Amino acid sequence: MKCHHPLDDPLSREASISLRTEIRHNYHESADAAEEYILDLTFKVFGEWAPKDSYENRYEIEAGEVHLRIVRLSVAMEEEISLTELFDYDQAISHASVLYDWKALNFEFSPSVLKVCDLANSLSDIFSIEKMILHPWARRQGLGLRIIQRLLCHWQSGCSLAIIRPFLLEAEAPDSGGYDLTNLSKDKKEGTRKLIHYFSKLGFESVRNCPYLVRSIEMMPPSSAEIDLPDFLLVPSGLAEEIEKGNGVEEA
After folding, report:
1. DSSP string spanning 176-213?
2. Which domain holds residue 179?
3. Is the predicted pLDDT of residue 169 greater than 50, yes or no?
4. Does residue 250 form part of some domain?
5. Which residues pair with 232 in a beta bridge?
6. Domains contained in the chain, number
């Protein structure tokens, strides 16, 4: 079923935004030692609404998914876990090692990170948005920023730095180095620039020689009013009507 984008559909339903999460955290003795300090959370994004003629009934539709990872660096340090082992846990965390100056005596953030962020504690946890995928009909509504803002508000406690990789789904960012856009096609270059500008609304900044945008957790997340974030998600009428009829939902 092909549906019109909700911003172009005057009969779109206003749906409240909800997040439901699956937490993956392994405490088994047989597990990799570093795994105990990696908290993976996968959030399903839903829109929920009641039809105008029946407020007693509630309907919902899945709008996307986001993967948040908390690297519990502070706990690893307290328990004297090797930071080299921790950052070798998987490829994503290995990439994050460029955020630090490994030659510094006290394991500090790299000068390029400190240049854009006022960070007092380099040994606090890392808040990382690993992946976010929204269904096509749910895009262009500011939903991605709204989700990240909510996650920052609820999960940033104890962290020092938030990071995100602004890559397009069809072209992931380079494994090392910063965002050199010269080797990208014109469309991908423009798309990446738009993503960098998009996330900058929440205070994320580019870092030289680093594949991440970074944001100090010491900054309060901007309010919805400050950056015009939506309180509701619009669901196109075609999809909403299929759900309300109980006939299932075809892919948008």
Report:
1. SS---GGGS-HHHHHHHHHHHHHHHTTT-EE-TT-SSE
2. 6-245
3. no
4. no
5. 16
6. 1
